[in-house]
Amino acid sequence: MALRSDWSQRTCSMARGLDILGDPWSMLVLREVFFGNGRFEAMKQRLGAADSVLTKRLAGLVEAGLLTRRPYDDGGRTRQEYVLTAKGEDALPVLNAVVIWAEKHLPAPSGQAHMFVIHSACGERTSSADTCTACGEPLTASNTSWHSLTRTADPVPLASAGTEAPAHPQNGTAA
After folding, report:
1. How far apart are CA 131 and CA 120, in angstroms?
2. pLDDT tens-digit profile of 29-54?
């Protein structure tokens, strides 16, 4: 699933990790699944991705063991939605780090184009990808929320492996 080459057999751990997590579309797909948005059409609409792009990234993330498919009934037929595995949930600090780094170093195109990592237990925004900087507790999918100002007015609890996706509005089209 690498951008240009297969790095899965490299001796460098970073190269092997980038083989899976180094593709921007794959990271955005994981973002959507953490937000509880694991259905193909909903992801396609949110991401603005072509069917072929989304299909390829979802297949790669399933093959890599970060996502799994779960059946759901749409009222007419059984379809598949994508949910995190424990391996996928372990990617959370990587996604948190990208968000925190971007907020610190990259200008936002508008006042609404911000996303923050929130430790749900204490309600504070954190500047660390894996530990709450306010209270020191480790961050997990079950105790972390993301607050995307373009998505919703309130922080969104994250989906985690083996749980139902959190109920929340799917407003807007950006992060």
Report:
1. 12
2. 999 999 999 999 999 999 999 999 99
CB 144 within 8 A of CB 121: no
Per DSSP, 123 falls in state T
Q: Are 51 and 44 in contact (CB under 8 A)?
A: yes
Per residue in 108-118, is it b (16+ CB within 10 Å) or e — as a string?
Answer: eeeeeeebbbb
pLDDT tens per residue, range 73-132: 888 889 999 999 999 999 999 999 999 999 999 999 999 999 999 999 999 999 999 999
Tokens at residue 120, please? 């749900």
Instruction: Decide: 103 and 116 in contact? Cβ < 8 Å.
Output: yes
Residue 46's CB: how many other CB atoms inside 10 A?
Answer: 20
CA distances from 42 to 55, 82, 126, 149 (A): 13, 11, 29, 19
Query: Taken in order 136, 141, 145, 147, is the CA torsion positive or negative?
Result: positive
The three-point CA angle 93-97-102 to 5° equals 155
Note the helical H segments in 48-156: 51-63, 86-89, 92-105
Are the CB atoms for 62 and 81 separated by under 8 Å? Answer: no
